Description:
There is one protein chain. By secondary structure, this protein is an alpha/beta fold. It has a domain at 4-165 and 218-281 and 334-362: 3-Layer(aba) Sandwich (Rossmann fold). Helices cover 54% and strands 12% of the residues. It has 16 helices and eight strands. The protein has helices at residues 4-11, 25-38, 53-57, 86-97, 101-108, 111-118, 120-136, 156-168, 171-177, 192-202, 204-217, 221-235, 250-265, 287-295, 299-329, 351-362, and strands spanning 14-18, 42-47, 69-71, 78-83, 143-147, 240-246, 270-278, 338-342. The chain has an eight-stranded mixed sheet, sandwiched between helices. β3 (69-71) and β4 form a beta hairpin. It is elongated and about 85 Å long.
Amino acid sequence: MTTTLDSICSSARVIVACGTGGVGKTSVAAALGVHAARAGRKVVVITIDPARRLADAIGLDGALGNEPQKVALDTSGELWVTMLDVRETFDNLVRETSPTPERAREVMENSFYRSLSRSLSGTRDYMAAERLHGLQNDSRFDLVIVDTPPSRNALDFLESPERLARFLKHPVVRLLVAPSRGGLRFASAAMTPVLKAISSVVGSDALTGVAAFLRAFDGMETEFSRRALAVAAMLRGNDTHFVVVTAPSPDALKEADHFVSELSRLGIELRLLVANRMPPRFGSSSSTDEHLRASQSSGDEAALHSLLASMYEDAERAEAGVDAFVRRTRTTFPQVPLASATELAEDIHSMDSIGVLAHQLAVAKPQL
């Protein structure tokens, strides 16, 4: 039977998994990769979270970095994994867009650039978009799965390409770049009021470093902007599928509501909801039935039915919370399907457990 997961994993060029911390989003991203590899696709899963969750989830002992590593799988397709390295990605971008190796060295040796490339909070979103651009154009892969950070701001990278393009076209940036083009003099009277205003905020030394960086950067901004806008278009294209991963706790469902509203604000279609870490059900009984049986029994039998009643209450509470979340989501995205998986007995730390999760998510279920 063709399932929702089959449809998504077979048609997408990019899958973006969103969700708060503690819902198993990284494991779900890896499971989607396994499912697609089983279907014959060549998949790379990239985490833009600086933590080692992806490496831990698949049981990878060695370091995970910018260069994708192939995972051993008995499938017709391939699964690769990688973790964003901000500085390496930035350096590679400078090398690729620089007109000469000398200009690339000038940029990378600039004090402002060194500070910028080490500032994770300032550049991670931009470099995540750039790395996605590189992987999406890498002939080794036909599907890229993005594991976003477990943060309310995890979708910032979706808007970062447009922000970068706007920044590069900003009049102040053009003003600082202008001297290398034979235009205004750096200390000309026309620029002095602007530069004084900027230096009063960032300091004169910092301004000098920024200006030197931008002058060395001159001519490279066009390619930066082109790539940024290409990523922006790709993220909003029909070949990119967004998945929101949640768990049945009230906090996780509240955060999932936030991700759904952000996708709606950005005009991006939501393709799949994943309810992970659901309490397992045992048989077709209910908490009401088990409480009744407990009241009609005694001793160990009554204790057993009371325990089962408590377990069914947990499952029913979880299902009610997820059902309400799905109904809320479908007021905005009416056709979005739901996949679910139960809490496993142990933490996911191997490809075997990722495979179990992939199987659960792939099982066709009646839609709510």
